[in-house]
Amino acid sequence: MRAIIIGATSGIGEEMARQMLDEGWQVGVTGRRVDRLDALAGAHPGKVETAAMDVTDPLSAEATLATLIERMGGADMIVLSSGIGKFNKDLETGPELETLDVNVTGFTHMALAAMRYFAGQGQGHLVIISSIASRRGDRAAPAYNASKAYQARYAEGLRKWAARRGLDIAVTDVQPGFVDTAIVQGKVFWLQPVDKAVRQIMAGVKARRSRVVVTRRWRLVAWAMERVPESLWHRM
Are 6 and 110 in contact (CB under 8 A)? Predict the structure, then answer.
């Protein structure tokens, strides 16, 4: 099996690459920090293809993805794991637009490129790493939560697009709770080890599930988030 992970220089994307490699996958990895990609390739000789990519330069990123697919002889799965999130309690414009540039504009270009490729070959699996933050808005990072909601709904739309065309394309929306990665800022509760979270992600992905919430205890949190009255949510 061949997988490409867009955003594999840290966090969930990097750990997914490691676990896939341990299972015998051929893996292509992209990101801005080429040294991290090279280190991963060096630890798994002959099994990893690397490519520098910045999704905020979407046309270049699309061309890089196409070239990487060709170098790998095709792709069965493409994982969209690149993303940023910044605290912005003062509602400054810059951080919000930076977040949207990566999590919405860059994400959309990559998702569409992946789906067009899979449609051309008649099958494939797109995995989108969104977040439990997609369930509600938040004062600390308004653009982050909103962008993750966009990704979750976009995944749903792409599933319907494939289904209406009778294409064998799975689209999995992965919604982690707090995972012990660099994107988490400050003290948080129920912080998940990244290896544990990714093991559960991989189980859901292999089952071709539409949505995967990890870890299991966060499924209860996700359920509660959507049902808390807005007046109470504002006080939390």
Answer: yes
Cα separations in angstroms, 215 against 36, 147, 206, 221: 26, 21, 16, 10
Q: What is the total count of domains within the chain?
A: 1
Q: Which domain holds residue 45?
A: 2-233
The residue that leads in pLDDT, 201 or 135, is: 201
Question: Could you tell me how many residues make up the chain?
Answer: 236
Other CB atoms within 10 A of residue 209 CB:
14
Question: Which pLDDT tens digit goes with each residue over 112-155?
Answer: 999 999 999 999 999 999 998 888 888 888 999 999 999 999 99
Degrees (nearest 5) of the Cα angle 52, 54, 57?
130
Q: Which CATH number fits the domain that encloses residue 227?
A: 3.40.50.720
- In contact, 134 and 172? CB cutoff 8 Å: no
d(CA 40, CA 93): 36
φ, ψ at 9 (rounded to 5°): -90, -5
Q: What is the mean pLDDT of the chain?
A: 91
For residue 165, count CB atoms less than 10 angstroms from its CB and return exposed for 0-12, middle for 13-18, buried for 19 or more.
exposed
